[in-house]
Design brief:
25% of the residues lie in helices and 22% in strands. By secondary structure, it is an alpha+beta fold. The protein has one domain. The strands form two sheets. It has a three-stranded antiparallel sheet with strand order 1-2-3. The chain has a two-stranded antiparallel ribbon with strand order 4-5.
Length: 106
């Protein structure tokens, strides 16, 4: 379950916003992540599936977020399966990830 039980008040407020976005968009997953140059850290996760949790990390270089920051993918992806660049990334292998929206926070 990751750090879910130990969320700070600020993380709980972020989780509320993520839940609202998830419900509004009809997505099964929303998250706030931090990129440190090597890893993508999922700081706060709201998910209908236990595959993703607070505190989880993955390689930054092969993330959708990095591809979007690099300009290789658009911020809004209605269908991951229709973009060859997206299909090459590991996240595209998760059967539940079919659309993706990214809003970089700096």
């Amino acid at each position: 379950m990751g750090r879910r039980g130990a969320r700070s008040d600020a993380d709980e407020k972020v989780a509320e916003l993520l839940r609202a976005a998830k419900d509004s968009l009809g997505h099964s997953l929303t998250f706030l992540s931090r990129l440190d140059g090597q890893r993508q850290h999922l700081e706060v996760v709201e998910s209908a599936t236990p595959l993703f949790r607070d505190g989880q990390t993955q390689p930054q270089q092969t993330s959708f977020c990095q591809a979007i920051l690099d300009g290789r993918l658009p911020n809004v992806i209605p269908d991951v399966a229709k973009l060859p660049e997206a299909k090459r990334l590991p996240a595209a292998r998760f059967p539940r990830i079919r659309s993706f929206v990214s809003v970089p926070v700096r």
